[in-house]
Design goal:
Strand content: 15-25%
Number of strands: 14
Number of helices: 9
Number of domains: 4
CATH topology of the largest domain: Heat Shock Protein 90
Helix content: 40-55%
Radius of gyration: 46 Å
Oligomer: single chain
Mean pLDDT: 84
CATH class of the largest domain: Alpha Beta
Length: 446
């Protein structure tokens, strides 16, 4: 090594030397060497064996010292962590406090942890939880697998009750089993839970009251709608008699006035019918009278019934229905009602000279019907809401007549009851297309 320049010889060269490594396990931590400057035959094989034995003892002593220092360092580190912990940490042996950190002392209203050492843990537990704690402690120490986390309450030195959560484990303390317990103050959690319970109770009460109000509203609408129908029937009848001149000659102006009464009375009739359907929908009494139906004449008749309103609005109408459209299982009266609602909306939002297109075609095992207009369209953020009851898109610059905001909600209930779907496809300034589906006859037979 000297020749290779790895070490430098200093002082008088020795005649002979003997060295062995200091090993801890498989790790070399140093070396021990002796040397002679006068007698190169001084050390024998026996001397080497003795020297190895001595070096092993030195290594063991060094290892023990290193372990002791590591243990002290570890204890200091964990003691610091425990003392700085915001949760309490205690060690209980034979029911007595053996170790208490600062957080526990503060929780119990004491200045230092030493004031608790040697005192009975059970004395700080409120009476109603003592039996529970004793039983849990007994089962834990016996290794019975009882849940290690549970809630109790303790009393501090001035008599305040504090809800806490215990997390219990078993350790060796002074060579004997002991319980190490993490103590967490859950006062804020309990306060939040109580506030949540109170809020939930208030919410339940409000919900019950709202249900009462909703029931009262539905009953009121039902009664009101029925009460309005009788005088409305008379108004419609007398207006028709006047318009047809059955009570004597009428002037053109009088006839036009009678027609105005009829138009508005029929609009009112539609609103009343919507209210009646709404009450049926709300109370689960919306019933269908389904049968095998040919949708072609149903669509045609609906358009013809709406044609005066369409033409009055200055719009054109187009029907695109293939002659081989298969029959459907549906309630013809209710599907007509849906068509009235969708065509009526198209009339409201179509510009003068616009075209309303009604189409139908087979898609998988459904018939899909669409009503398309050339209006200003529906904003994307409103497209899901328009099927909610009483919801109306604010398009006041294009609306020709206001409704109750029930038409689409009722239409959705009708289509849902058929097992179909209803939706809208709309883009600003590009108009809207409403679609709905009803099952074809084969679907019900399968």
């Amino acid at each position: 090594m000297t020749r290779k320049g790895l070490i430098e010889r200093v002082g008088t060269p020795s005649k002979v030397w003997m060295g062995v490594p200091l090993k801890v396990g498989d790790k070399i931590i140093g070396a021990v060497a002796v040397q002679s400057y006068t007698d190169e035959t001084l050390y024998s094989e026996n001397d080497l064996e003795i020297f190895k034995f001595v070096s092993d003892q030195i290594a063991l002593a060094i290892e023990k010292k290193m372990a002791e220092e590591a243990l002290v360092e570890s204890e200091e580190k964990y003691r610091t962590l425990v003392e700085q912990a915001t949760d309490g940490v205690i060690i209980v042996q034979d029911g007595v406090f053996k170790f208490v950190n600062t957080a526990t002392a503060k929780l119990l209203g004491l200045d230092t942890p030493d004031e608790l050492i040697g005192k009975q843990f059970i004395d700080f537990i409120t009476p109603e939880f003592r039996e529970k704690v004793v039983e849990r402690h007994r089962m834990t120490m016996a290794g019975k697998g009882t849940p290690s986390i549970y809630e109790i309450a303790i009393t501090d030195v001035v008599g305040h009750t504090i809800p806490i959560e215990l997390n219990v484990g078993i350790i060796k303390y002074n060579e004997r089993p002991a319980a190490i317990i993490l103590v967490r103050d859950i006062s804020e959690r309990k306060k939040a839970e109580e506030e949540l319970k109170k809020a939930f109770a208030e919410l339940e009460h409000a919900h019950r009251e709202l249900k009462k109000l909703d029931t009262a509203k539905t009953e009121f609408l039902n009664i009101t709608s029925h009460e309005l129908r009788s005088p409305l029937t008379s108004i419609l009848g007398y207006a028709e008699i006047l318009s047809e001149g059955l009570v004597g000659p009428v002037t053109d102006g009088q006839r036009e006035s009678a027609y105005g009464i009829l138009r508005n009375a029929r609009q009112l009739e539609r609103l009343i019918n919507d209210l009646l359907d709404f009450t049926q929908m709300e109370t689960g009494r919306l019933r269908l009278d389904t049968e095998v139906c040919d949708l072609k004449p149903i669509i045609k008749d609906a358009v013809e019934s709406m044609r005066p309103r369409i033409e009055e609005a200055g719009c054109a109408v187009s029907i695109e229905v293939p002659p081989d459209l298969p029959p459907s299982i549906c309630d013809a009266r209710r599907i007509t009602q849906v068509l009235y609602n969708l065509i009526g909306n198209a009339v409201k939002f179509s510009p003068d000279g616009g075209t309303i297109t009604i189409s139908a075609n087979k898609v998988d095992r459904f018939i899909r019907i669409s009503v398309k207009d050339e209006g200003v369209g529906i904003p994307e953020e409103n497209q899901e809401k328009i099927f909610d009851k009483f919801y109306q898109v604010d398009m006041s610059d294009t609306r020709r007549a206001r409704g109750l905001g029930l038409g689409l909600a009722i239409s959705k209930a009708i289509i849902d009851a058929h097992g179909g779907s209803i939706w809208v496809d709309s883009k600003p300034e590009k108009g809207s297309t409403f679609y709905f589906t009803v099952p074809i006859e084969e679907r019900r037979r399968s």
